[in-house]
C-alpha cells in the first residue's frame, strides 16, 4: 500500500522505471518498483477494506454471500428433480389416474398456494427496496426454472410458482405439443445440471384439458417417463406436493413493504364468459378481396354487428383488427350490455383462446398468430434466443428496413428486442410474432447444429421468411403471398423443421427465390421500346437533397398528374400489381377484377391505390414506389402489345433497382452486397427521379431476363 495522509491506499500497479530495466534483467527483483498514478484502484481498495472487515470480525462471510454460494464451490451435485403434477380439475385427475399417473388438483394441495411466475417477479421487486434511501428494488426480470423450482415461504404462507414457459397466455408456442414436450425435458435437464442449493429442486406442472387434447399421446408418454423415474437421462421423482415439502429447496421472503397480491391463487379450470359464436364447421380462411374490404371498412356499427353474427374465427379476427385500428384495444364493444364492460381486448383474448382449443391438426395457427400480434404478446425467452445467436459471432437483422438501426448486434432485454421488432417489421401484424418464432428456432438450431450457419454473418429474419414462403410456393404451385398465408397456418414445429431445411439447402433456396421473382413476357426484346418516364421535377438537386424531397412528397401523399389513370392502364399489361409488403395478400391488385369493375378515372380505384400506398410507413419509400409505377406505366404506354404473365411486385422491382444502382458504382463489392444493403438504400433515396426511373427500367429488364 501507498501511505497517503496516514491512509494505506492500493495503486493499480507497480512498475520498473525505463532506465532501470537493463539492471533488472541482469539481476531480477533488484530494482525498486514504483506505484503508478492510479491511486487508489477503487476495485482493489474495496476488496482490501472487505478483507480487513472479515479479519477483524466486524462482518461474517455470510454477510457478503447471502445466497451461500461459497458453500457449494467445487461441490458438483446432481440432485433428484422432484415433479408435482397438478390437474386443473377432478375430471382430468381421473383421466390421468386411468393412465396410472397420479396428480392432485390445486384444491387438494391447500394450504399450499399455486401462483403464476409473474407474481414472483413482482415480489422480487420489493427486495432491496428502501424508500428512505431512494432505492427502488430489483427491476422486473424473467424468472427462469431454477428460481421457480422451490417452495417459497412468503409471510408464513407456503407458495409454489408454475414455470413461466407453461403460461400459454404469454405466448402460444407451448400450444404445439412437440415444442411443449421438448421444453419440459430441456428445463428439467437444465435444473438437474445447475441446481446448487440445499434441498431438492421441485417443479410444479399444471396440466389442462387443452394440453391433453392437443398432444395426448406425447404428454402421456412423458408423464409415464416421470412415473418410471427418468426423463431421458435425468433422474426424477413424481409425487405429492405436500410430501415434497419435507425435502424441497425453500426460500423465505418476509420483508415485502406494502406489497399485496393482485391476483387470486390458481384454483384450476377458470370459467370465462363467451361473447362470440364459434362454429368449427364454418371456420375457414377468407379470400383476399374479403380481407381487403374489411380492412377498409370504417363503419363501427357495421363491424360490431358483423362480429355478433359471425361464427368464423378468421372473419372475427379481421373484424377485431379493423376495430383495433379504428378505436383501439380498450374500446367498449357493448357486448356486455349494462352489466359489464367488454372491450376489444377481451374479445381478442377469447378468439386467441378458442383458436387453440382443439386437436393439434385443427388448431387455427393463423388466427392465433394474428391475435397474438394484436395483443402484442412477447415470448419471454426472446432475449435468451438473441444472446445465444450473438455470442456465436453472428448479428441479426429484423424487418425489411435496410438500415443500420434494424441490426441487433448486442444483447438486450426482451422488451428492447421487441421494440426493434415493432419498429421494423412489416405491416402484417403477424410478422411480429413470426419474427419472434424464427429467432427462437434459430437460437435452438445454432446451439444444436452450428455448421448450418457457416458463411452467414448477418441472420436476416425477413429473408428466411421469404425463403420459407418461396419453398411453399413451389410445393403448392401458388404465389408468394398465398404461400405466406399457408406458412401462417403451419404449427411452430413444422416451421422450425422447414427453417432447418432452408439452412441446409440455402444456396438452392436462393435460386428458387430468384426463379419465382422473374417475369415472363410474351414479346421479343427487339420489339420492346425501353423508355424512361419523363421527369417534370427540377433537374437540380433540391435543398436538403433528394431523400428529403422524397420524404416531403411522400409525407403529403402527392402524386403526379394522371397517376391513377396511368396505373389503371398498366394493369392492362400484367396479371396484377403488388404494392407494399409483398407477402401481404391484401396488397395484391388483380387486373381482371379491377379492369372489369372499375374505370381509369373512378374515385374508388384511386382510393384503393391510395390506401395501399398509405400502408407503406416510410414516406421516402412510398415516393419511390410512385416513381416506379410511373416508369412502368411509361413503358406500358410506349409498348401496347407488351404483356407480363405474372404479378409485378414493386418490393422486388425496387429492391433490384437499388442493387443495380449500388453495384454500378461498387462493382468490387458485388459478393458483399448483403453487408452493404443499408448503405445501398440510403444512396438510392438520394438519387434524382431520372436516375431512379432508369434503374427501375434496368430492374424490369433484369427480372424479364432481357437484362
Give a nutshell description of this structure.
The chain is an alpha/beta fold and 707 residues long.
Beginning-to-end CA distance, first to last residue: 76 Å
For the sheet with most strands, the description reads: 4 strands, mixed
* Fraction of residues in helix: 40-55%
How many helices? The count is 29
Class per helix and strand makeup? alpha/beta
Overall average pLDDT: 89
Q: Total number of β-strand segments?
A: 20
Q: Stretches where pLDDT falls below 50 for ≥5 residues? A: none
Q: How are the strands of the largest sheet arranged?
A: 11-5-13-12
Strand residue percentage:
5-15%
Shape: globular
- What is the CA-based Rg, rounded? 32 Å
How does this structure look, described?
The protein is of the alpha/beta class. Helices cover 47% and strands 10% of the residues. The strands form 7 sheets. A 4-stranded mixed sheet has the order 11-5-13-12. β9 (151-154) and β10 (157-161) form a beta hairpin. α26 (619-638) crosses α27 (650-665) and α26 (619-638) crosses α29 (689-703). The longest helix is centred in the first third of the chain and has 20 residues, at 209-228. It is globular and about 95 Å long. It starts with a strand and ends with a helix.
Amino acid at each position: 500500500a501507498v501511505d497517503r495522509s496516514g491512509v494505506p491506499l492500493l495503486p493499480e500497479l507497480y512498475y520498473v522505471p525505463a532506465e532501470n530495466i537493463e539492471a533488472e534483467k541482469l539481476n531480477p527483483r533488484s530494482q525498486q518498483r514504483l506505484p503508478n498514478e492510479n491511486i487508489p484502484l477503487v476495485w482493489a481498495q474495496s476488496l482490501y477494506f472487505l478483507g480487513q472487515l472479515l479479519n477483524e470480525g466486524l462482518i461474517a462471510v455470510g454477510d457478503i454471500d447471502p445466497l451461500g454460494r461459497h458453500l457449494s464451490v467445487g461441490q458438483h451435485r446432481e440432485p433428484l428433480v422432484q415433479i408435482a403434477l397438478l390437474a386443473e380439475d377432478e375430471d382430468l385427475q381421473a383421466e390421468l389416474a386411468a393412465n396410472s399417473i397420479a396428480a392432485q388438483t390445486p384444491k387438494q394441495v391447500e394450504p399450499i398456494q399455486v401462483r403464476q411466475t409473474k407474481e414472483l417477479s413482482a415480489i422480487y421487486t420489493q427486495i432491496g427496496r428502501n424508500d428512505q434511501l431512494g432505492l427502488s428494488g430489483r427491476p422486473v426480470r424473467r424468472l427462469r426454472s431454477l428460481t421457480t423450482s422451490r417452495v417459497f415461504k412468503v409471510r408464513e404462507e407456503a407458495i409454489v410458482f408454475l414455470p413461466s414457459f407453461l403460461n400459454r397466455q404469454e405466448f402460444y408456442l407451448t400450444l404445439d405439443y412437440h415444442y411443449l414436450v421438448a421444453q419440459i425435458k430441456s428445463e428439467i435437464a437444465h435444473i438437474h445440471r445447475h441446481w446448487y442449493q440445499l434441498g431438492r429442486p421441485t417443479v410444479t406442472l399444471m396440466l389442462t384439458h387443452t394440453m391433453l387434447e392437443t398432444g395426448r399421446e406425447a404428454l402421456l408418454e412423458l408423464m409415464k417417463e416421470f412415473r418410471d423415474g427418468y426423463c431421458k437421462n435425468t433422474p426424477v421423482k413424481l409425487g405429492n406436493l405436500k410430501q415434497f415439502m419435507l425435502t424441497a429447496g425453500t426460500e423465505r421472503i418476509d420483508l415485502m413493504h406494502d406489497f399485496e397480491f393482485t391476483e387470486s391463487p390458481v384454483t384450476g379450470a377458470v370459467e370465462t364468459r363467451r361473447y362470440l359464436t364459434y362454429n368449427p364447421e364454418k371456420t375457414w380462411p377468407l379470400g383476399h378481396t374479403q380481407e381487403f374490404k374489411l380492412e377498409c371498412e370504417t363503419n363501427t356499427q357495421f363491424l360490431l354487428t358483423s362480429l355478433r353474427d359471425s361464427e368464423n374465427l378468421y372473419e372475427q379476427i379481421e373484424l377485431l383488427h379493423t376495430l383495433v385500428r379504428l378505436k383501439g384495444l380498450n374500446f367498449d364493444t357493448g357486448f356486455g350490455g349494462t352489466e359489464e364492460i367488454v372491450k376489444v381486448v377481451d374479445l381478442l383474448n377469447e378468439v386467441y383462446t378458442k383458436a387453440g382449443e382443439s386437436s393439434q391438426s385443427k388448431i387455427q395457427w393463423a388466427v392465433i398468430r394474428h391475435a397474438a400480434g394484436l395483443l402484442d404478446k412477447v415470448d419471454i425467452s426472446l432475449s435468451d434466443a438473441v444472446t445465444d445467436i450473438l455470442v456465436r459471432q453472428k448479428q441479426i437483422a429484423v424487418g425489411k428496413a435496410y438500415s443500420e438501426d434494424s441490426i441487433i448486434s448486442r444483447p438486450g432485454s426482451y422488451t428492447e428486442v421487441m421494440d426493434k421488432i415493432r419498429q421494423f417489421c412489416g405491416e402484417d401484424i403477424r410478422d411480429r410474432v413470426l419474427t419472434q418464432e424464427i429467432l427462437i428456432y434459430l437460437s435452438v438450431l445454432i446451439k444444436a447444429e452450428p455448421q448450418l450457419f457457416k458463411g452467414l454473418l448477418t441472420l436476416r429474419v425477413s429473408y428466411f421468411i421469404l425463403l420459407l414462403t418461396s419453398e411453399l410456393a413451389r410445393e403448392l404451385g401458388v404465389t408468394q403471398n398465398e404461400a405466406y398465408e399457408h406458412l401462417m397456418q403451419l404449427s411452430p414445429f413444422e416451421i422450425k423443421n422447414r427453417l432447418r431445411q432452408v439452412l441446409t439447402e440455402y444456396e438452392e433456396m436462393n435460386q428458387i427465390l430468384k426463379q419465382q421473382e422473374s417475369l415472363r413476357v410474351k414479346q421479343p426484346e427487339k420489339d420492346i421500346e425501353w423508355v424512361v418516364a419523363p421527369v417534370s421535377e427540377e433537374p437540380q438537386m433540391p435543398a436538403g437533397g433528394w431523400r428529403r424531397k422524397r420524404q416531403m412528397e411522400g409525407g403529403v401523399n402527392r402524386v403526379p398528374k394522371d397517376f391513377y389513370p396511368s396505373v389503371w392502364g398498366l394493369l392492362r399489361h400484367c396479371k396484377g400489381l403488388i404494392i407494399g409488403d409483398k407477402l401481404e395478400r391484401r396488397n395484391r391488385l388483380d387486373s381482371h377484377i379491377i379492369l372489369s369493375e372499375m374505370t381509369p378515372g373512378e374515385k374508388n380505384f384511386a382510393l384503393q391505390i391510395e390506401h395501399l400506398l398509405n400502408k407503406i410507413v416510410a414516406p421516402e419509400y412510398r415516393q419511390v414506389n410512385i416513381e416506379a409505377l410511373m416508369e412502368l406505366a411509361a413503358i406500358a404506354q410506349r409498348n401496347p402489345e407488351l404483356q407480363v404473365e405474372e404479378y409485378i411486385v414493386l418490393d422486388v422491382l425496387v429492391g433490384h433497382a437499388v442493387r443495380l444502382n449500388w453495384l454500378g458504382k461498387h462493382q468490387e463489392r458485388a459478393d458483399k452486397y448483403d453487408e452493404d444493403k443499408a448503405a445501398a438504400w440510403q444512396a438510392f433515396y438520394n438519387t434524382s427521379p431520372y436516375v431512379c426511373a432508369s434503374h427501375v427500367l434496368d430492374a424490369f429488364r433484369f427480372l424479364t431476363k432481357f437484362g
